[in-house]
Amino acid sequence: MNYLGFRNEEIKPVVNELNKLLSNYHIYYQNLRNFHWNIKGENFFDLHNQFEELYNDARLKIDEIAERILTLRHRPISRFSEYLEVGSVVESEMLEQDREMVLTILENHQILIENLRSVIERAGKVNDEGTIDMAGSFLENLEKKSWMLDAWTARASKSVEV
Ligand SMILES: [Fe+2]
Prior knowledge:
By secondary structure, the protein is mainly α. 78% of the residues lie in helices and 0% in strands.
């Protein structure tokens, strides 16, 4: 039992999912910076700012995930090479089109959302309400952002047709 009352073998699966989430968020963060820097075209101002808002948000969440792992008395993965090994978000190529960038971020969100649902499922098995609470708020936030980005792609495709 640790000081929170969790046995190591019961909390380890939660920590593994959290470390996966930490890895995925780091790669997602870097994809956002890539797009923030390399965005071009008529949507520059909108998306340059939007990507910045998203990566600033991801930066805060990265720290919260790592500190949750530490609170559970485990070590957060701290090396980029390991993030790339453990994470399933793909490090993006250099993209030219703003639409491709938004679609890539939406795909990244899908992976993060699945990962968050696994965190909640694992944490639920050991009544780790602290982790459930954190992951639940991240999930709600990502779902809302995904709706907004999805709405943006719908508008963009319509204006292409016209
Ligand atoms: Fe900037």
